[in-house]
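Hey, can you fold this one?
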Amino acid sequence: MIRRIPSGGYCYTIEFCKEISRDCIEKIHRVYYSLLNKLSNSFEIVVGLTALTIYYDPRILKYIDLDRIVLEALEDSERFELSFERKEWIIPVVYGGEFGLDIDSVVKYTGLTIDEIIKYHVSKKYLCYAIGFTPGFIYLGELCEKLIVPRLETPRLTVPPGSIGIADRLTGVYSVESPGGWRIIGRTPLKIFDFNRENPMPIKPGDIVSFKSISIEEYYELRDVFISDYHG
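Sure. Predicted structure:
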Protein backbone atom coordinates (compact mmCIF):
# COMPACT_ATOMS: atom_id res chain seq x y z
CA MET A 1 0.00 0.00 0.00
CA ILE A 2 1.35 3.42 -0.98
CA ARG A 3 1.85 5.82 1.93
CA ARG A 4 2.13 9.60 1.65
CA ILE A 5 4.29 10.89 4.50
CA PRO A 6 4.90 14.56 5.34
CA SER A 7 8.42 14.74 6.79
CA GLY A 8 8.89 18.10 8.44
CA GLY A 9 8.10 21.42 6.81
CA TYR A 10 10.08 20.97 3.60
CA CYS A 11 9.99 17.28 2.79
CA TYR A 12 7.27 14.99 1.40
CA THR A 13 7.87 11.24 1.01
CA ILE A 14 5.87 8.70 -0.97
CA GLU A 15 6.55 5.15 0.23
CA PHE A 16 5.70 2.59 -2.45
CA CYS A 17 6.89 -0.69 -0.96
CA LYS A 18 8.90 -2.30 1.83
CA GLU A 19 11.20 -4.39 -0.35
CA ILE A 20 13.02 -3.67 -3.61
CA SER A 21 11.35 -5.13 -6.69
CA ARG A 22 11.25 -4.35 -10.41
CA ASP A 23 7.49 -3.65 -10.29
CA CYS A 24 7.94 -1.22 -7.40
CA ILE A 25 10.84 0.55 -9.14
CA GLU A 26 8.89 1.01 -12.37
CA LYS A 27 5.95 2.43 -10.41
CA ILE A 28 8.29 4.91 -8.71
CA HIS A 29 9.71 5.94 -12.09
CA ARG A 30 6.25 6.55 -13.59
CA VAL A 31 5.28 8.79 -10.68
CA TYR A 32 8.68 10.52 -10.77
CA TYR A 33 8.39 11.53 -14.43
CA SER A 34 4.78 12.56 -13.95
CA LEU A 35 5.85 14.85 -11.09
CA LEU A 36 8.66 16.32 -13.19
CA ASN A 37 6.01 17.44 -15.67
CA LYS A 38 3.80 18.89 -12.95
CA LEU A 39 6.36 20.64 -10.71
CA SER A 40 8.78 23.44 -11.54
CA ASN A 41 12.57 23.22 -11.37
CA SER A 42 12.49 24.85 -7.94
CA PHE A 43 11.57 21.46 -6.45
CA GLU A 44 14.01 18.59 -5.93
CA ILE A 45 12.68 15.06 -6.41
CA VAL A 46 14.86 12.20 -5.17
CA VAL A 47 14.19 8.67 -6.39
CA GLY A 48 14.92 5.90 -3.89
CA LEU A 49 14.68 2.12 -4.10
CA THR A 50 11.37 1.88 -2.24
CA ALA A 51 10.28 5.51 -1.98
CA LEU A 52 10.37 8.93 -3.60
CA THR A 53 10.99 12.19 -1.74
CA ILE A 54 10.11 15.74 -2.75
CA TYR A 55 11.97 18.67 -1.21
CA TYR A 56 9.85 21.79 -1.54
CA ASP A 57 9.51 25.36 -0.34
CA PRO A 58 6.15 25.92 1.43
CA ARG A 59 6.43 29.62 0.56
CA ILE A 60 6.12 28.61 -3.12
CA LEU A 61 3.74 25.67 -2.79
CA LYS A 62 1.64 24.79 0.25
CA TYR A 63 1.52 21.22 1.51
CA ILE A 64 -2.16 20.82 0.64
CA ASP A 65 -1.46 21.83 -2.98
CA LEU A 66 1.56 19.54 -3.22
CA ASP A 67 -0.52 16.68 -1.85
CA ARG A 68 -3.12 17.27 -4.57
CA ILE A 69 -0.42 17.19 -7.28
CA VAL A 70 1.01 13.96 -5.84
CA LEU A 71 -2.44 12.35 -5.88
CA GLU A 72 -2.85 13.35 -9.53
CA ALA A 73 0.54 11.83 -10.39
CA LEU A 74 -0.36 8.60 -8.58
CA GLU A 75 -3.67 8.40 -10.45
CA ASP A 76 -1.94 9.10 -13.78
CA SER A 77 0.53 6.28 -13.17
CA GLU A 78 -2.34 3.83 -12.57
CA ARG A 79 -4.31 4.81 -15.67
CA PHE A 80 -1.64 4.66 -18.33
CA GLU A 81 2.02 4.14 -19.06
CA LEU A 82 3.82 7.45 -18.94
CA SER A 83 6.36 7.95 -21.70
CA PHE A 84 9.78 9.43 -21.08
CA GLU A 85 13.08 9.49 -22.90
CA ARG A 86 14.85 6.28 -21.86
CA LYS A 87 18.51 6.40 -22.89
CA GLU A 88 20.86 3.45 -23.20
CA TRP A 89 24.45 3.59 -21.93
CA ILE A 90 27.45 1.29 -22.30
CA ILE A 91 30.06 1.32 -19.54
CA PRO A 92 33.46 -0.25 -20.36
CA VAL A 93 35.04 -2.20 -17.49
CA VAL A 94 38.33 -3.88 -16.67
CA TYR A 95 37.37 -6.88 -14.55
CA GLY A 96 39.54 -8.56 -11.93
CA GLY A 97 43.19 -7.92 -11.16
CA GLU A 98 44.00 -4.75 -9.24
CA PHE A 99 40.62 -3.29 -10.22
CA GLY A 100 38.49 -6.23 -9.07
CA LEU A 101 39.24 -6.03 -5.36
CA ASP A 102 36.67 -8.67 -4.37
CA ILE A 103 36.40 -10.83 -7.45
CA ASP A 104 38.19 -13.72 -5.72
CA SER A 105 35.59 -13.70 -2.93
CA VAL A 106 32.84 -13.71 -5.58
CA VAL A 107 34.52 -16.78 -7.11
CA LYS A 108 34.43 -18.41 -3.67
CA TYR A 109 30.75 -17.57 -2.99
CA THR A 110 29.39 -18.46 -6.43
CA GLY A 111 31.66 -21.29 -7.54
CA LEU A 112 32.10 -19.51 -10.87
CA THR A 113 35.37 -18.77 -12.64
CA ILE A 114 36.42 -15.16 -13.23
CA ASP A 115 35.60 -15.56 -16.92
CA GLU A 116 32.11 -16.80 -16.03
CA ILE A 117 31.56 -13.88 -13.65
CA ILE A 118 32.47 -11.47 -16.46
CA LYS A 119 30.27 -13.33 -18.95
CA TYR A 120 27.21 -13.18 -16.71
CA HIS A 121 27.79 -9.56 -15.66
CA VAL A 122 28.05 -8.25 -19.24
CA SER A 123 25.22 -10.45 -20.54
CA LYS A 124 22.35 -8.30 -19.23
CA LYS A 125 20.93 -4.86 -19.80
CA TYR A 126 20.24 -3.26 -16.42
CA LEU A 127 17.57 -0.79 -15.42
CA CYS A 128 18.84 2.26 -13.55
CA TYR A 129 16.79 2.02 -10.36
CA ALA A 130 18.06 5.16 -8.64
CA ILE A 131 20.97 7.58 -8.21
CA GLY A 132 22.43 8.00 -4.68
CA PHE A 133 23.77 7.37 -1.83
CA THR A 134 26.75 9.48 -2.89
CA PRO A 135 26.87 11.82 -5.92
CA GLY A 136 26.41 9.73 -9.04
CA PHE A 137 26.22 6.27 -7.45
CA ILE A 138 24.17 4.15 -9.88
CA TYR A 139 21.86 1.44 -8.56
CA LEU A 140 21.19 -1.13 -11.30
CA GLY A 141 19.06 -4.25 -11.37
CA GLU A 142 18.65 -7.03 -11.48
CA LEU A 143 21.72 -9.23 -11.41
CA CYS A 144 21.85 -12.68 -12.92
CA GLU A 145 20.89 -15.17 -10.18
CA LYS A 146 24.32 -16.80 -10.44
CA LEU A 147 26.01 -13.55 -9.30
CA ILE A 148 24.00 -12.91 -6.14
CA VAL A 149 26.40 -12.44 -3.21
CA PRO A 150 26.13 -10.69 0.18
CA ARG A 151 27.71 -7.34 0.96
CA LEU A 152 31.08 -7.23 2.66
CA GLU A 153 30.91 -7.95 6.38
CA THR A 154 33.05 -4.85 6.98
CA PRO A 155 32.60 -2.00 4.48
CA ARG A 156 35.68 -0.30 3.06
CA LEU A 157 36.46 3.22 4.16
CA THR A 158 37.49 4.09 0.60
CA VAL A 159 36.27 2.70 -2.72
CA PRO A 160 38.01 4.16 -5.81
CA PRO A 161 35.88 6.11 -8.30
CA GLY A 162 34.68 4.03 -11.23
CA SER A 163 34.50 0.83 -9.18
CA ILE A 164 31.83 -1.67 -10.23
CA GLY A 165 30.22 -3.50 -7.33
CA ILE A 166 27.67 -6.24 -6.76
CA ALA A 167 25.56 -6.88 -3.67
CA ASP A 168 22.44 -8.99 -3.23
CA ARG A 169 20.42 -8.63 -6.45
CA LEU A 170 21.96 -5.32 -7.54
CA THR A 171 25.04 -4.08 -9.33
CA GLY A 172 26.26 -0.52 -9.07
CA VAL A 173 28.86 2.06 -10.05
CA TYR A 174 30.78 4.16 -7.54
CA SER A 175 31.08 7.40 -9.50
CA VAL A 176 33.13 9.18 -6.84
CA GLU A 177 35.50 7.98 -4.13
CA SER A 178 33.51 6.97 -1.08
CA PRO A 179 33.08 4.34 1.62
CA GLY A 180 31.22 1.24 0.48
CA GLY A 181 30.30 -2.34 1.27
CA TRP A 182 29.59 -3.83 -2.16
CA ARG A 183 31.92 -6.46 -3.62
CA ILE A 184 34.11 -4.81 -6.25
CA ILE A 185 34.62 -6.86 -9.42
CA GLY A 186 36.07 -4.24 -11.78
CA ARG A 187 36.51 -0.59 -12.66
CA THR A 188 35.51 1.70 -15.50
CA PRO A 189 37.92 4.34 -16.82
CA LEU A 190 35.03 6.68 -17.61
CA LYS A 191 34.14 9.68 -15.51
CA ILE A 192 30.49 9.11 -14.61
CA PHE A 193 29.88 12.21 -12.49
CA ASP A 194 31.43 15.66 -12.97
CA PHE A 195 30.53 18.63 -10.75
CA ASN A 196 31.96 21.03 -13.34
CA ARG A 197 29.47 20.15 -16.08
CA GLU A 198 26.07 21.69 -16.66
CA ASN A 199 24.62 18.17 -16.50
CA PRO A 200 26.95 16.48 -13.98
CA MET A 201 25.07 13.16 -14.01
CA PRO A 202 23.63 12.27 -17.44
CA ILE A 203 22.40 8.79 -16.44
CA LYS A 204 18.88 9.04 -15.02
CA PRO A 205 16.46 6.68 -13.25
CA GLY A 206 14.74 4.57 -15.89
CA ASP A 207 17.73 4.53 -18.26
CA ILE A 208 19.26 1.25 -19.45
CA VAL A 209 22.90 0.43 -18.69
CA SER A 210 25.06 -2.40 -19.99
CA PHE A 211 28.69 -3.29 -19.35
CA LYS A 212 31.48 -4.12 -21.78
CA SER A 213 34.71 -5.93 -20.86
CA ILE A 214 37.87 -4.12 -22.01
CA SER A 215 41.63 -4.59 -21.72
CA ILE A 216 44.05 -2.70 -19.49
CA GLU A 217 45.37 -0.90 -22.59
CA GLU A 218 41.86 0.28 -23.48
CA TYR A 219 41.35 1.37 -19.88
CA TYR A 220 44.23 3.83 -20.03
CA GLU A 221 43.18 5.07 -23.47
CA LEU A 222 39.71 5.89 -22.12
CA ARG A 223 40.73 7.21 -18.73
CA ASP A 224 38.67 10.24 -17.62
CA VAL A 225 36.52 10.32 -20.77
CA PHE A 226 33.10 11.59 -19.65
CA ILE A 227 30.27 9.06 -19.98
CA SER A 228 28.26 11.20 -22.41
CA ASP A 229 31.31 11.50 -24.70
CA TYR A 230 31.83 7.73 -24.91
CA HIS A 231 30.24 5.89 -27.83
CA GLY A 232 31.52 2.37 -27.36
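The mean pLDDT is 94. Let me know if you want another pass with a different chain boundary.
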